[in-house]
Automatic annotation (TrEMBL):
It is a multi-pass membrane protein. It catalyses: UDP-alpha-D-glucuronate = UDP-alpha-D-galacturonate. Pfam families: Epimerase. InterPro entries: Epimerase_deHydtase, NAD(P)-bd_dom_sf. One of its GO terms (cellular component) is Golgi cisterna membrane. It comes from Dendrobium catenatum. Residues 109-345 form the NAD-dependent epimerase/dehydratase domain. The lineage of its organism: Eukaryota, Viridiplantae, Streptophyta, Embryophyta, Tracheophyta. This is UDP-glucuronate 4-epimerase. Its EC number is 5.1.3.6. It is found in: Golgi apparatus, Golgi stack membrane.
Length: 458
């Protein structure tokens, strides 16, 4: 942009020719100098950003160390040897896995987060009843990936191909939709956990917000558009004090970043439904547990620490108030998720353009019977036949809430959802799986080498 030389106030006077040329020369000089300085500053900023982002910086460089710590906080490591996708053999595996065997009512489903806890159970249930299923998972190291690999092996044995890739990989998603006319997407991939957000907030935005948008973008551009069922969370109720939690309650006071990203997801879902005609169902899960569960969940790390003889910390609220959760067994969650898929109406968009109103739903999926964490520990003691070493501590300000309780009347009415597994029965099944999976032949119940059990957020 040209820079004018300020003129003196007062009456205008015509200038002599040589003054006029001198004025033009000065304007050109200052304009060029200004542009040079601006572009020099811009170039310096770009080079500085590239310098910080460079993975080849010397490890002894302070800037390198700072950049490395930022990157570590924003991302989780995934498999460094991810197999290439897109060759004929890979395409054949995708198509074979997506083949529907249940006629005439079978569906074809892309399940994201398929190697995760809920994802692996839901994927297996869909395959068992004859639906076509393709999984997608990036196998990150939020917790030990070997547990995810073990779930993947079970799914592979059932005939399910789990594609190794990220939900933020747009070309991969488009390729999958080009290969298979998915009727549904069960979107379960997410960065889970409330407390981990204090260590790695960027991962929640990357997975739960950007990742959801990536999936919805691929779905709205697909032809035909699939119906979407995705995992929100009971955490969206946040600081709400009305119980039991109902879908009609306000959810504008999240207590954690995790909750905020899930609430944002529900608003994003509304936008894609409104603009593009995507049929979308949001499921608010309440504290899911069971075999093959996540190591950062209470029943998992309590079991691990009780067997290891470690003292477990039990949170208490103000005035020693009891912390309680609406613990929901995995089979009940899967039943509600599949019912959501089966009752989802078709999307109404075509070529990314909405043709008419589309279905938009939100359901609570819980057990409706909150149990205190103290009672949870007591039940585990009975099943493990080991006395826990307890320590009561005040609940930290980390985003956890004191109490959750699901009202599932809407899910019962619309989905036929009926949770029927109490905590006593569910924990018995969980403990049985845990001992079979983690107990080595010697009889020691300590974690097997290479089989996980640790948690980055416990």
């Amino acid at each position: 942009m040209d820079v004018d030389i300020p003129s003196s106030p007062g009456k205008f006077k015509s200038e002599k020719p040589h003054h006029h040329y001198l004025r033009l020369l000065l304007r050109w000089h200052y304009s060029s100098l200004h542009k040079f300085l601006c572009w020099t500053i811009v170039a310096a900023i770009v080079l500085f950003v590239l310098f910080l982002a460079s993975p080849n910086l010397s490890s002894s460089s302070p800037a390198s160390l700072h950049s490395s710590s930022i990157t570590e906080r924003r991302s989780l490591r995934t498999s460094s040897s991810s197999p290439a996708w897109g060759d004929p053999a890979w395409e054949k595996r995708v198509r074979d896995s997506a083949r529907i065997r249940r006629r005439p009512f079978g569906i074809s489903v892309l399940v994201t987060g398929a190697a995760g806890f809920i994802g692996s159970h839901a994927t297996n249930a869909l395959k068992r009843r004859g639906d076509g299923v393709v999984g997608l998972d990036n196998f990150n190291d939020y917790y030990d990936p070997s547990l995810k690999r073990a779930r993947q092996a079970l799914l592979s044995h059932s005939g399910v191909f789990v594609v190794e890739g990220d939900i933020n990989d747009g070309p991969l998603l488009r390729k999958l939709f080009d290969l298979v006319a998915f009727t549904h997407v069960l979107h379960l991939a997410a960065q889970a956990g409330v407390r981990y957000a204090m260590k790695n907030p960027g991962s929640y935005i990357h997975s739960n917000v950007a990742g959801l948008v990536s999936v919805l973008e691929a779905a709205r551009s697909a032809n035909p558009q699939p119906a979407i069922v995705w995992a929100s969370s009971s955490s969206v109720y946040g600081l709400n004090t009305e119980v039991p939690f109902s879908e009609s309650h306000r959810t504008d006071s999240p207590a954690s970043l995790y909750a905020a990203t899930k609430k944002a997801g529900e608003e994003i879902a509304h936008v894609y439904n409104h603009i593009y005609g995507l049929s979308i169902t949001s499921l608010r899960f309440f504290t899911v547990y069971g075999p093959w569960g996540r190591p950062d969940m209470a029943c998992f790390f309590f079991t691990r620490d009780i067997l290891a003889g470690k003292t477990i910390s039990i949170f208490q609220g103000p005035d020693d108030a009891t912390v309680a959760r609406d613990f929901t067994y995995i089979d009940d969650i899967v039943q509600g998720s599949l019912a959501s898929l089966d009752t989802a109406q078709k999307s109404t968009g075509s070529g990314g353009t909405k043709q008419g109103p589309a279905q938009l739903r939100v359901f609570n999926l819980g057990n409706t019977s909150p149990v205190s964490v103290v009672e949870l520990v007591s039940i585990l003691e009975r099943h493990l036949k080991v006395k826990a070493k307890r320590k009561f501590v005040k609940m930290p300000r980390n985003g956890d809430v004191l109490f959750t309780h699901a009202n599932v009347s809407l899910a019962k009415k619309e989905l036929g959802y009926h949770p029927n597994t109490n905590l006593q029965t569910g924990l018995k099944r969980f403990v049985k799986w845990y001992l079979e999976y983690y107990a080595p032949p010697s009889g020691s119940y300590l974690t097997k080498k290479g089989r996980g059990g640790g948690s980055s957020s416990s």
